[in-house]
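Hi U.,

Before I forget, here's the chain from the pilot set. I'm dumping it here mostly so it's searchable later in email.
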Amino acid sequence: MSEPNFTEERSSHGEHIRIFFTILISFLVGMTVAVYFLPSKQKGLSHSQTNKLDEVIKYVNAYYVDTVNTDKLFESAITSMLAGLDPHSTYANAADNKSMMESLEGAFEGVGIQFSIMNDTIMVVSTVSGGPSEKQGIRAGDRIVKVDGKVVAGIGIQNEDVMKMLRGKKKTTVKIGIMRQGFNQIYDYIVTRDVIPTYTLDIAYMVEDHTGYIKINQFGATTGKEFSEAISKLKKKGMTKMILDLRSNSGGFLDAAIQVCDEFLPKGEMIVYTEGLRVPTDKIYATRYGNFETGEVVVLIDDFSASASEIVAGAIQDNDRGVVIGRRSFGKGLVQRQIDLSDKSSIRLTVARYHTPSGRCIQRQYGNGTEAYYEDFIDRFYRGEMSHADSIKFDENQKFKTKKGRIVYGGGGIMPDYFIPLDEDSTLNAYYQVLNSSAIIQFAFNYATEHKDQLLKQYPTAQAYVKGMTVSNELLKQLLNFYTQKNGQKVQNLNNESIKELKIWLKALIGRDVYQDEAFYPVINSNDKAILKALSINKKN
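Structure:
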């Protein structure tokens, strides 16, 4: 699994930590809808039903023992109502709805920094090039100690608190108090907020002479354009084979997934179709000449690839257009319509199921309730299917065939053509011990901040860094000492394989802090089992 991309005022605190349940929590909270429609006229509740709800609220307000927040009561009622339908029909209040749509629509308004909370202090990891903070002189490595005169260091501040303070409407200002390494005073900067673009495509680069790599972190309004531009850029560099990384991509807009598929499939090939009780069946086909219809394609998925990611993987697999590598995907085949409410909140109501070209619906069973639905997903780990492909149970009643007659199954996610197990190597305990702590992140950040000028002089570009930088034994020793000081214990069972893995991650994290993703992904992907498998398949073909 690759490192997620954090942009602007998002925390970079959650690095690639191989703890299954840590990743799971953020994934379940962040799963996005498969499709977005403008609201349409809907029949309302009957007069007696609305009176009944009003009647209950009236009696609660009149007689309940404590003060009541009526708005929260209504929101709880709506949330419970939708939860009784299926796991993906949800309610979002105005603030949550705004945040999600900003992410998917490609921009938000703020000061343009990427931050991380270290030692109870807000650290500036990077500034957006040309953004408001960079223009005012704020730099990577600065520590934010005050915001609008209020002390924010040493108070237990959380990521959400920082974003609330720094985000705001365009042309509004915020006063940021900075402490800079080597100086004892606080420097005040008045930053005028502006529109900060966000990107759904993390990186596109050439892995080998003719093989390109593109990673999409979600399917948003800008994905189609970003993807098309990335293909054009890599084709100019000689790409005839593509690795499309959709691991940990929880979905997004259906239209964006269709645009991505349209780049691969000839006109007239089916991409997906949707069916619902109260909406017409909609069959969607490739409509134009795509920019990569003849090159080889490998799609990477994992347990956290869901919704729109599964539509792309399913279309590629069912049309025998390419190879799917990884682990069984999440299994979300329900389509939501977003309906905006009068107070700018919204509901996302399931209106249809989508089917891959072969006819399979990959939605997992949810008849036992939402809790059991997510527990079943967690149980994959305990059932052993993350480690062994033969632990996966297929529904023999949902057997389908690809265009060339290969057997594929519905009812529980996309099963890859080549299985890559979750890393559980007991000989790498020392590597996991360090990687699963924040020590390596903090050490890499500190080193990058202190040696940035030296690194840039020695390696002027990200490409030069990737090719030339080597983590010495002495630098690794400094990391291990830092870990011991921070955690009060030494790293145990350090062997050559753990040393190799730690050096790769340390180089990648330092590179990201100096050169952003252009240095991170090429380094971390150099030892990625799924990518190595993809390259070996390409060579055979």
